[in-house]
Amino acid sequence: MAAQPGPPDDTSPGTDDKQRQLDAVRVDLTGSELTTDQGVRVDHTDDALKAGERGPTLLEDFHAREKLTRFDHERIPERVVHARGAGAYGYFQPYDDRLVPYTVAEFLADPSVRTPVFVRFSTVAGSRGSADTVRDVRGFATKFYTQQGNYDLVGNNIPVFFIQDGIKFPDLVHALKPEPHNEIPQAQAAHDTFWDFVGQQPETLHMVMWLISDRALPRSYRMMQGFGVHTFRLVNAEGKGTFVKFHWTPVLGTHSLVWDEAQKIAGKDPDYNRRDLWDAIERGHHPEYELGVQLVAEEDEFAFDFDLLDATKIIPEEVVPVQPVGRLTLNRNPDNFFAETEQVAFHTANLVPGIDFTNDPLLQFRNFSYLDTQLIRLGGPNFPQIPVNSPVVPVTNNQRDGYHQHLIHKGRTSYSENALSDGYPEIAGPGPDVFSHYQEKVEGHKIRRRSNSFLDFTSQATLFWNSMSEPERKHIVAAFQFELGRVTDRSVRATVVDRLNHVDHELAVLVARGIGGPEPPAAVVDNHGRSSPALSQLSTAMESAATRQVAVLVADGVDGAGVSRLVAWLREHQVVPELLAPSDGTVHTVEGDDLTVDRAITTMASVLYDGVVVPCGPDSVRALADNGYAMHFIAEAYKHHKPVAAFGTGVDLLDQPWVSASLARDGAGVVVDQGVVTTPVAGEDLATEFAEALRAELARHRAWERPTDAVPA
């Protein structure tokens, strides 16, 4: 990744403007008195006005009527898709001016400009009440409050989509949502109608491979990639266009949960991802993402074996490298979820000078659909006046009236052109800050037909499969077996297996075996053998353990000195340790002190942590050994390939038949084997070598080489 730019100028245009704008509408009720919506102070709000203590309620109680009416109408329709989300404010800053030859979009090309942003992450299929960790696509939408107007990069954590033409979008969502006859299942693809749709629409195969992979189970929004999905255009000062694909890459690396974890977290903490984002920002561990671009000259539009306008295709990074151009930092949580995260309105057609569309048929439909949706959700055409949606530059036009108009427009003319108001607002003259649509020649017959260049539905699905590591392949096969195993119609299962046989014969055979269906007898097409190493998550950054959360299991008699040394070292390196004990409160250390614990172990679970440590202390170790919950905690973390560490007598707790790793016994060294970190040393002598080895294992995320078949379920 490119080096981060130096500290930005805090007086950068736009940054302070947006803050002042939000401050102006932020309400602090500290020290205030209760009033009605009209500002009338009230002396009682616990009883409605009645005719006598036990008499009927009176219609004239305007305060009660207003209070109940507001309550009745305080919910707005949830989004049809991307209903469950979490958001944060931050800023974006380019690294340098390398994009100046390609675009007049100042926020992308001027390294002195720091642009305020609001980012919303989301799941796609489930309702607002569903869990965070379901197998699903994740939204990654960014609103840039630029000095040229608002720009929305409305993307996902997967670089392709299910369909090629937006006319199929209602069919896709209807098939993916709960089935209409019984409203089951919630936030899942594992049912008949979705897989029936996949079987009937082979263009979905590439996206389905991503959906069934670990990419659909992100460890955190902070460790999740984002993509613009479509091919867009950058436009320079001369009006010349360049095709562009947008990529967000998390500085912490791209990491995922495993399926067993995801299901358990949905029960233990359904708010897992949104809580993780909120807590990280509150701790000062600000999430960072690098913006990268793939640039393709217009004369090279047809230089590939796929169509750049096809949203079911990627440009492999080995063919067109991703150039890092800037960094996004999220540094502030919203003050009110509804007012900001729920009411933020993104739209793919919110463009600024220097960025334009292509003729991608899916993008063209999105440009219509998003605005139409916001009009319904947010009560009319004035939703851009909601503070989280409003630009930092003045809005001056003749679009007035409508529901929830907050502005008071002066003057007698509301049309253009006019003479009575001296022609104002007047048309802007030509210039880099004025939007001008990219000019291209368009001609052809009016037809309903797909281009032949869109008809390859399998080669990139095969590319994705070929690019996966062995653990990732195992997870894909297991996920297909789970998903299709929940499909009740055997013919739907068979159709999907037949489709997979066009992707890879071995994949289709393994899936068929797992669901008890007939195996395809032979490959339909030969696997082309090409791969793209960048598609595997095992190629991601694995240098940093910052913000990883580690459970330290303690009980009475624990080695307080050793725990204190370890906790201090971890915090110094931005790892987040939490002390878990059989009960909340404090434990007594072997030194005779009281050690405050963070939580009772029974309120948490190993799936909520990135690793686990068992400290020294014979009495503490015996207490944990007799605690079934604690032993399950350790075994489950081991089963999920997470780092497991112990020092001193804590090593004895890992001496289990299901631990295949070597354990440190004698001497003062540190042993690291299959993600298990141990040392016989404890107390004040606990070496930083032990903590550093644990940090390295946390950074690598999982010990995939570890066999876990013998681990108790």
Q: Work out the oligomeric state of the chains in this entry.
A: single chain
What would you report as the Rg, rounded to the nearest angstrom?
28 Å
Q: Which class do the helix and strand fractions yield?
A: alpha+beta
Helix content: 25-40%
In terms of per-residue confidence, which ranges show pLDDT below 50 for 5 or more consecutive residues?
Answer: 1-11
Task: Describe this structure in a few short sentences.
This is Catalase. The chain is an alpha+beta fold and 713 residues long.
Structure overview:
This protein is an alpha+beta fold and 713 residues long. It has three domains: 85-385, Catalase core domain (Catalase HpII,  Chain A, domain 1, Beta Barrel), CATH 2.40.180.10; 458-539, Catalase, four-helical domain (Hemocyanin, N-terminal domain); 549-699, Rossmann fold. Helix content is 27%, strand content 15%. It contains 18 helices and 19 strands. The protein has helices spanning 15-25, 62-72, 106-109, 169-176, 192-200, 205-212, 259-268, 272-283, 337-342, 361-377, 459-467, 470-485, 490-503, 505-515, 560-572, 618-625, 628-639, 688-699; strands spanning 85-94, 115-123, 138-146, 149-156, 226-227, 232-235, 241-250, 288-297, 323-332, 355-356, 549-553, 576-581, 586-588, 594-596, 599-600, 611-614, 644-647, 671-673, 676-679. Strands 1, 2, 3, 4, 5, 6, 7, 8, 9 and 10 form a ten-stranded antiparallel beta sheet that branches. The relative contact order is 0.09. Its cofactor is heme. Belongs to the catalase family. HPII subfamily. Decomposes hydrogen peroxide into water and oxygen; serves to protect cells from the toxic effects of hydrogen peroxide.
